[in-house]
Please model this.
Amino acid sequence: MKKILIAIFASLLFLSCSKNTENNTIKFWHFWSEPSQKQALLELISQFEKKYNCKVELTELSWNDGKTKLIAAFNSGTAPDVLELGSDWVAQFSSSNVLKALNADSFDIKKFIPFSLEPSYWNNNLYAIPWVVDTRVLFFNRELLNKAGRDGNPPTTMSELLEMARAVHLGNDIYGFGANGADPHRLYKKILTFFWTFGGDVFSPNGDLVLASPQNASALSFYKELSKFGMIETQRQLDAAFVQGKIAFWISGGWLIQKIQNENPKLNYGISTIPSYQNNSGVSFAGGEYLAINNKTKNYSLAAELVKFLTDGKNSVEFCKKVNEAGFPADKNYFKNDILLSSESKRAFAEQLLSARMTPVHPHWLEIEEIIENAVVEVLYDKIDAFTALKDAQNQIQSLLDKK
Model:
C-alpha cells in the first residue's frame, strides 16, 4: 500500500511539474536581430527568466517581412504571447481584435512620455505599451561646408539649408543634400518632417484629410528644390554616400553613427536638429517600439510581467546604452539619463525628440503612406506639380477610406 501511495504521489508531482513548466513558458517575437542587439536583449531576458523562474522563447523577425509573418501567425492561431510592433503598425493590430486590451493603472501608464502614448490607444482602449522611442536628425559634413566657404556650422533655417546645399553641390561625386526617392516605408518619414515643419499635416485634429493644403504643397515644392542640389536615392544608398563623404546634408537616424564609426571614423561630421521654417521649429519624425500581448495568450500574467519588465525605465535604459539605434526609454523618468546624454550626438537626438511627432494613428496608415510616397516620387521626377500631386493623393486616400 505504501509503495502504491508513493507511486501515486510521484505521478502527481510529475504532472504538477509538467503543468508548471508549461505555465512558465511564453513566446516573444521581436526585431532586434543584429548580434549586439540580440546580446543586449538576451541579457535582459535572462534576468527576467531568473526572477520569475520561467522560460521565454525568442523569435527574431525582420522589418522586411516581420509584419506579414505576424499577420499570418494570428490568422493561423500561432501568434506569440508577447510581440513587438513598430509605432506605425500598432493601430492596424489594435483595430483587428487580436491584441489584449490592457489596464492602464496596472502598467503605470502615466510614467511614459506623453507623445509616445498616442499609438498605444485605439477607441479609448490601451493595447500596447511604449518601450523605446527615437527620431531623425540632420547629419552634416563639416569638411564639405568648409570647402564651399562656409564655417562648418549647420543651418538653422530651411532657407539656409537650401542655400548651403546649393553652394556645396558639385554633382557626380559631391552632393548638397540626400533626398529619399522611391523607398517604401522610409520616404514618408522624410516628407512628413517637411510637412510638419512647414505647418502642414495629413489629418486635422478632428480626423479630416488635409493633405492637399498650401503648407504641404510648399513643403513638397521645397523638398523638390532641395533634390535639385542632391542625390535622389534610397535610405541605404544615402547612408552609404554620407559615410563616404559625398553628401553635405542628410536626415537619418542613430544607426548612422555606428556605421560611420565602423566604416569611416575620420569623417568630419556633425549632428543638429531639423532647421526651422518661418516661426515653426523644425519637427522631425519620431518612431518607437511597442510591446503588446496576444488576445488569446494562455499565460497573460507572465506575458504582462514581461511587458512591464522590459518597459521599466531601469531596464530599457540599460538596453539603450548598449544598442545605440534603440534610442531612448519611453519611460520619462529615464529619458534624460546622464550616460545616454554623455555624447554630443545623443544630446542632439534628445533635443530633437522634444520637437518630434509620430505617424498619424490610423488602422490603414500603411496604405495611406504608400499613396503619399507615390505622390512625392511623381513630383521629384517632374511628372506633376506639388499641389496637383497632393490633391490626387488626397482623393485616392479618401476613396480608400470610403470603401472601408
Notes: Residues 31 and 66 are 8 Å apart (CA to CA).
